[in-house]
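@here heads up, posting the sequence + SMILES for the uridine-5'-diphosphate-glucuronic acid run so it's all in one place. Ping me if the SMILES looks off, I pulled it from an old spreadsheet.
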Amino acid sequence: MRPCSRIVERKGPHDMEMGEGAEVSVSNAIANAAAARIEGGVPTRSLTPPQQQLRASVGGKMASLEDTSKSFRLERHGSYLLRRINSAKVVAASSHLLFRATILATVVLILLFTLHYPPLLLSGSSAVSSAGGAGGHSNHRSLMASSSASAASAINYGGAAWEREVRRSATPRRQDGLTVLVTGAAGFVGTHCSLAMKKRGDGVVGIDNFNSYYDPSLKRARQGLLGRHGVLVLEADINDAALLTKLFDVVPFSHVLHLAAQAGVRYAMRNPQSYVASNVAGLVALFEVAAKHADPQPAIVWASSSSVYGLNTATPFSESHRTDRPASLYAATKKAGEAIAHTYNHIYGLSITGLRFFTVYGPWGRPDMAYFSFTQRILAGKPINLFRRHDGAAVQRDFTYIDDVVRGCLGALDTASPSTGGGGKKRGPAQLRVYNLGNTAPVPVSKMVGILEDLLGKKAKKNVVTLPQNGDVPYTHANVSLAEQDFGYHPTTDLATGLKQFVKWYVEYYKVQTGKHTDSKKRAEEEGEETPATATA
Ligand SMILES: O=C(O)[C@H]1O[C@H](OP(=O)(O)OP(=O)(O)OC[C@H]2O[C@@H](n3ccc(=O)[nH]c3=O)[C@H](O)[C@@H]2O)[C@H](O)[C@@H](O)[C@@H]1O
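bot reply: prediction finished. Complex structure tokens:
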């Protein structure tokens, strides 16, 4: 056996941590426990009288022997107890530490999960997701949380003033005007359609989540433009079922133009979840409220995509062609959207029209698209990547000008039949349509770059690279006869004319000078003319 004194002297880490008071109470505990051991481990008061007698006689004989070893045993038992107390303290301290670490880890995990998968956490009554024709880093807001975002406009979301504003914006100015909820209203197509509808006297309310997939300040500028024309655009998300429900309570929308989505073909490889959150979960959230809550059910027109044709090789692309071979996740979510539309039409009697847009471009466009980013890079003297097919042939797109697409959207809204259900019940067959909205004239991307070079007065630095395996398709070409037949869709803008409009807007919006401006200024200076700039200097 180890000598007790050595054990008593040894101090563990927890002994070092103990304060004076703790030391005193430990000494008392040792003394009490030692007294109990001297009584044979059994307190005297718990013995029967005969037992007490026996203890007295045996105890007397043993007294002298015990006296000699008493202090040694006291110390030994004391140290034994101190060891047990110490180890109990170690266990207690460790479990305390473990408890704290577990709480901390749980908090961190919840935080991370909230940041990365808010739609999953908030699914149901007040879930949120991305909207606004974009959505990489979703800017999620619920009805309650939106109040902070609305501080700028001094409207308390859901309050009486808010309801007044919503009703004002939703009220048509012409007889039989539509009452339209536009999702993704601060997006490219959403802005143009909202303006066009407002101008002809429809009532329009927009929602957009203003996410940062591309420069949110451009979306804010579009919101400002719409505001100046009397269109209210709320900062809200299509997955926010509470907000959608509230909106349908306040306004009996006759139509929904659903343009909110995660766009971009190649970005889907970098942020796949955002496509599921917006283009699948968001679509379902909207259909749910429209089918089960809205009274009356609205007719819905929504943005599908030419990308659903995927690896289809039959041209021009017709609505009757195969769409079961998407080449990107973006395309797959749009194709899923078309299948989901079928389901809600079939079960709930929702009137639904899908529009397959073909590479829409124009003023107030999307900076992630090639014509826009090429313009930025050409002006900045930076190189562009020009994709070509594996066989060396040019990649081609059926570029479609925004004004043509707006006419197509309005035509689809105007010819949409009312939904037939209500309160989650179908009362009869409802309209289900899909249309191509393209330009019917594919152009090689290299030609698009040539037009930009002319308009910008500057040569592009081109890196010609083989089309990467990133979901891109080599060729698109729309057959639009169905849209023409049903609502007189007829695209009228060729790429050169449309890009001219785009560059005009770009130069004004970003206050930049093209090479053409610089050239003409130089020429004027050389010729001694007064240019507007020198005249004001
Ligand atoms: O029509 C559609 O369905 C789709 O049109 C566009 O997708 P995309 O046609 O790929 O448009 P851009 O990203 O602007 O690309 C246009 C062309 O430029 C090419 N490109 C793009 C980027 C680049 O760096 N280099 C390059 O040569 C592409 O291969 C493509 O042929 C939109 O981004 C999608 O949201 C839309 O759904």
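MO: Residues 4-113 form one domain.
MO: One more: The chain has three domains: 4-113, 117-359+398-442+477-493, 378-397+443-476+494-537.
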